[in-house]
Design goal:
Layout lengths: L2 E5 L5 H15 L4 E5 L13 E7 L11 H10 L5 E8 L8 H13 L1 E9 L6 H24 L1
Parallel strand pairs: 1-2, 1-3, 3-4, 4-5
Helix pairs in contact: 1-4, 2-3
Bound molecules: flavin mononucleotide.
């Protein structure tokens, strides 16, 4: 099972959330690769069974510029064999809370096998740890189901 977390972060909130998600995988003894978007080779998407995408939201509920190539790549080459999940941080002061998570969700739902989404208000708090555990469980369940189907 090969899984990647790919995230972007400017002020550190989404980076912290990505680290929490990564830690939850590690506690389940699942080895997961973690990449800031700038270090993720876009051509390697097809090598993964699961990808968890982490993003903050910018502008008027928009996807950050540095995430647009990843978005387009999956939109064009996504497959239902790829299990996905998306998480993000945002600020509910803005009219469109975590809009980038919703934009990824809508595309991933159509182009991939979307397992779960998660939104966190600004910096992750202690209560968000349990959300991260559930998030990881959902993605793992979906990947396992998909691998079972393939091996049949
Ligand atoms: C100019 C600007 C626009 C933003 N627009 C939104 C928005 O539309 N929706 C939202 O939920 N958060 C918005 N945010 C809040 C950030 O997404 C939030 O602070 C996030 O946690 C930052 O993540 P990071 O620390 O990983 O960079 C905006 C922040 C700034 C500075």
């Amino acid at each position: 099972m090969r899984i990647a977390i790919v995230y972007t972060s400017v002020t550190g909130n989404t980076k912290e959330l990505a680290a929490l998600v990564h830690e939850r995988f590690t506690l389940r003894s699942v080895d997961v690769e973690i990449f800031p978007i700038k270090q993720f080779p876009l051509n390697s998407i097809s090598e993964y069974d699961g990808i968890a995408i982490g993003t903050y939201t910018w502008g008027n509920g928009s996807i950050p510029r540095e995430m647009k190539n990843l978005f387009s790549k999956i939109e064009e080459f996504g497959t239902k064999r790829l299990s996905t999940a998306v998480f993000g941080t945002g600020d509910s002061f803005f009219p469109y809370f975590c809009g980038a998570v919703d934009a990824f969700r809508d595309m991933l739902y159509v182009r991939t096998n979307l397992a779960v989404t998660m939104k966190v208000e600004q910096r992750p708090q202690f209560k968000d740890v349990a959300k991260c555990s559930r998030f990881v469980e959902c993605l793992l369940d979906q990947i396992r189901k998909e691998l079972e189907v393939v091996s049949r």
